[in-house]
Amino acid sequence: PENTIFVDSKATLHTDRADLEAKQSENPYKWELCQKTNPEKRTGGIGEALKGADVCISLSKSGPDTIKPEWVKTMAKDAIAFICANPIPEIWPWEAKEAGVRIVATGRSDFPNQVNNSISFPAIFRGTLDVKARTITDEMCIAAAYELAKCAEDRGISEDYIIPTMGEWEVFIREAVVVGMKAIEQGVAREKLSRDQLTKRAEKIIKEAREATTLLMKSGLIPPVPEE
């Protein structure tokens, strides 16, 4: 954490932020970040925080120009930028690339490397339900994240493909299986199944759901996606 700098709507987070210290009872998490990150107490805003940075992860207000190209140019060589605001990312992907970023991810499906929770939460719930888990642990979610990475590696990672897409439905099966297995390992599952049993169950349910959705769309009961 000491190598990270967080920025809120006002400025960078650090222990000299008297406004956050005064409100630490209301927002203890932000004050905790002030204490654990940015030990050099770098002040300013996004532009100052990006100087020399290897990675930018932005979950901010919709852009463009929330992050400016001239700020991105000050980042380290071959930098990575996750610009995840919707409907418009904080900076357009091509502008980030022109400014020197090597790998760009956004929250949109019409750009490469979509980062969206929809690639994870359906499978996490599927795996949880399949073993009748009492809760969803952090470790179950982390297992899903690692499996996502493995799926991308199996297909071949490139600058424009660092994460599977939501159209790759077999990914959800793999995620569901590792989530279920982790729940069993941690003792929170009410039903203990083998990896093969979990795979067959998840595949059957997900396949049937996809086929039903396709049928409903073809019959017009689910309207088509509106054109822009």
Model description:
This protein is mainly alpha-helical and 228 residues long. The chain is built from 9 helices and 3 strands. The relative contact order is 0.08. Strand 2 (79-83), helix 5 and strand 3 form a beta-alpha-beta unit. Helix 6 (121-130) crosses helix 8. The protein has a 3-stranded parallel sheet. The chain has a domain at 117-219: Rossmann fold. Helix content is 43%, strand content 7%. The radius of gyration is 21 Å and the shape is globular. The model has no long low-confidence stretch (mean pLDDT 95). The protein starts with 17 loop residues before the first helix and ends in a 9-residue tail after the last helix.
List keywords for this structure.
228 residues, 3 strands, mainly alpha, 9 helices, Rossmann fold, 3-stranded parallel sheet
What's the alpha carbon Rg, rounded to whole Å?
A: 21 Å
**Mean pLDDT score:** 95
Return the CATH topology of the domain at 117-219.
Rossmann fold
Number of strands: 3
Alpha plus pi helix count: 9
**Widest sheet: strand ordering:** 1-2-3
* CATH class placement of the domain at 117-219: Alpha Beta
**Largest beta-sheet characterization:** 3 strands, parallel
